[in-house]
Amino acid sequence: MEKNITLNEIYRAQYALKGIIRATNLRVAPYIRKGCEIYIKPENLQVTGSFKVRGASYMISKLTEEEKKRGVIACSAGNHAQGVALAAKACGIKATICLPAGAPISKVEATRSYGAEICLVPGVYDDAYQKALQLKEEKGMTFVHPFDNPRVIAGQGTIGLEIMDELPDVDAIIVPVGGGGLISGVAYAAKQLNPNVKIYGVQAEGAPSMVESLNRKAITRLDKVSTIADGIAVKEPGENTFSICSNLVDKIVTVTDDEVCAAILFLLEKHKMIAEGAGAVSVAAAMFSHLPLEGKKTVCLVSGGNIDVTFLNRIITRGLQKNGRQCTLAMEIPDRPGSLVKVSSLIAESGANVTAVNHERTNAYINVNSCVLRITMETRNQDHIDEIIKTLTDNGIHIIY
């Protein structure tokens, strides 16, 4: 792959993208992790809400007139779809996009709004990929691969040029990883300019295709993927991207969905930014100390912000729970007057705010003269929750969970 992409190619992509992409200057993020100088590269603020427009636009700009006449086809979990649709519309090219049937409605409708023909495919990204290859053969269109294409990778590599230009002494760059196109481009550009910069990748725990492939030293296909980070839910990395990651990426780690939710909440509260699950994994890896960042000047690449707002409430709730900002306790209390008052008073004295109460008398696993009380409350952090549990326990309240 290294023979098919050069630093000059990435610079050519940067020139070609002038007037197409939006400037996403670095932002200082002092609260992500103590002891580190961390910056955010906000590609969630990019045109179409994702970095994907870079690679798609550069590849389409290099098509021949004959290829343009036949149109383009692509597959995507949503962000690449929008990039291809926008780039094709700008060039007056017909675009057909295959998306997983479960892709967020917001991404599907955004893609449709750019004039692309939509083909929803049952399953995940890889199923949409197979359908796109089938239609490519049937209709003779040009396939715009979402990650495993030299020109797409070169387009994504322009992010690496921008980071190195704006922060030449950067020590580490953390990049979300699905199929590997983004980290391949960023790693190639950054390492060419400074071989000492550390390139770290992050995958969702429920979709660790590149992690598994690197561990086994061979491209590995997962049987299934399951994560809220739909943009990086890829079962199998590409040949080109696997090669570059094997040679240039220093480490790839995984984060849990709860950690991703906490990162989304952090970006929303502290930076007034909306990030989707895939976009927030880099911040999650830094927040929860999955990488050796102490003393390092680090950039977290937030790759996209196209989150389904109908899903956002659940994500915020999970984020609050992960950070110890919301807690639900179930406890067994005597079924007699005054018991609820006692519990409520102890919680109030501890400084928590009760938001919901559920009282249950029919639980078969408790004493016949008792009941189960479930209380949801707003708390400061996990230490505060531990303090409340200790106070209740010290006062004779049996905590079930």
Describe this structure in words.
By secondary structure, the chain is an alpha/beta fold. It is 44% helix and 19% strand. The strands form three sheets. A six-stranded mixed β-sheet has the order 1-2-10-7-8-9, sandwiched between helices. The protein has a four-stranded parallel β-sheet with strand order 5-4-3-6, sandwiched between helices. It is elongated, with a radius of gyration of 24 Å. The termini are far apart. The mean pLDDT is 91.
Structural class: alpha/beta
How far apart, in Å, are the first and last alpha carbons?
Answer: 53 Å
Strand content bin:
15-25%
Strand order of the largest sheet: 1-2-10-7-8-9
Radius of gyration: 24 Å
Low-confidence stretches: none
Largest sheet features: 6 strands, mixed
**Average residue pLDDT:** 91
Report the total helices.
15
Overall number of strands: 14
Assign an overall shape: elongated
**Quaternary structure type:** single chain
List the helices and strands in order.
Answer: HEEHHEHEHEHEHEHEHHEHHEHEHEEHE
Give the helix level as a range of percent: 40-55%
In short, what is this structure?
This protein is of the alpha/beta class and 401 residues long. The protein has 15 helices and 14 strands.
